[in-house]
């Protein structure tokens, strides 16, 4: 099925898997979301999730994919080739998982890609539920949502430094603060 | 000591009303999750700001509400969460899939088996594994028992908060029976880690079916007891009816799912609309109540317990005919070999060693899997780079979304209603903060 070209800021679409994925221009994300809600009938935004692809496919990252026809695990010689995973366009992906409340529960993933320092337009005005979802991704992944009415930390303390879910966030070794310390 | 998240009150920069700001919406227009004090009361000295929680028995954990009171009326509200944030998503990125299964159930510690299921389903779909029929039906049975368990905790604690102390003991009596069943089947009362990638960890032990039958026969009587205690109780009815109303449109705009959405009159259940496991082969009804108030949310959960009991009975009918069937997929690259083989087969020993030390590799890709957990749509977003550890795991937690509706429900509520409303949204703080 096609027809995704009508989505404002359309870049590319991928069918199959769990749900269709439509990549859109970051600048036109809000228009794309409004289109998905009003024209395509995806009235619920169930989730907003950002992923950090820093060092994706790099050293120490296992690349080991199955055969084209699927993973035939019972036959050792068909395990697949030692390949690197497919390259990603930018560092962060921000995915919006949408759901339509009608027969068959159709779902759609709107996705945009950003690099460090780039911003994403907030869609709180389209789906009020994105308020906390966007705050969470801002808090843990450091994605900045423009025009968000209240973009503050939500899960981490207000004075926390860094964004823990980023791949370059140091694991362990965070300073331990004591109550009597300045 | 980590400094607790402090209330900033939101920056009052620009009001961007969500669009279209339809007639009759109660969602606050400036920030959808913060109820601002009315302009005419803003400078009043009679508005009193209090801190509700984080350590308050009726916040079901550590939820902090900053409440503005005008007399007894709640005129402003904002929720502060994050006190139970433990970084599960980050931790799982450093564990192999085999070890990861332990984490999701600790996220939602009341609906643990459902969270375990959603993660297992996500990995299985990426791998393309076919789970044996027996495992599917047993998963369904345990998930429904878990749903009853979760609703019992909801009912017991929220009734306790409104003064019905005896309800708590009755609910926990039945909860105890469910936990005993979990212990019998899995060896653990909570956080069972019984669902493995590919099926179940162990075969269903002898004696489980009769015990479960006894419970299924007992549960409808217990439900009648609850109804007799609460549904004709004038105090209960007055404390719940017409309180915390959430309209269907507001519920959808706020992304509500599960019992909270059905209590607002939206007929939506993922078990029926998007059947996973074998939900298309069992007969059950989806309770829907139009009220949108605390009472409707309580009734939906009461009816769901009855429906879940019916599903458990149907699962038992099927499972009792599956003696000797495989409970886990026979795939040595993903599943641990049977223990006995380790003494005789070098191959099995190698597979065992590889899975335990290095883990199995999962096909590259991204996937979002959603199930109907006791609290609504519980989703797992998983990105794999083809290695033995997940690249990114994210859980869409229904409690997180349910708490977003607090400000909307708090329309003309008194401070006593606040306890009823927060309880009725049934948020588990572990699930909210992850």
Keyphrases for this structure?
heterodimer; A: 182 residues; alpha/beta; Beta Polymerase, domain 2; 2 domains; 5-stranded mixed beta sheet; two-stranded parallel ribbon; 2 helices; 12% helix; 22% strand; globular; B: 434 residues; alpha+beta; Cytochrome-c3 Hydrogenase, chain B; 3-stranded antiparallel beta sheet; 17 helices; 44% helix
Q: What string, H for helix and E for strand, traces the elements of chain A in order? A: EEHEEEEHE
At the first level of CATH, the class of the largest domain in chain A is Alpha Beta
Number of helices of chain B: 17
Proportion of residues in helical segments of chain A = 10-25%
**CATH third-tier fold name of the domain at 97-328 in chain B:** Cytochrome-c3 Hydrogenase, chain B
Placed side by side, the strands forming the largest sheet of chain B appear as: 1-4-3-2
What is the share of helical residues of chain B?
40-55%
Distance between the termini of chain B: 20 Å
Number of domains of chain A: 2
> In one word, what is the shape of chain A?
globular
Number of alpha- plus pi-helical segments of chain A:
2
Order of helices and strands of chain B: EEEEHHHHHHEEHHHHHHHEEEHHHH
Largest sheet of chain B: 4 strands, antiparallel
Backbone structural class of chain B: alpha+beta
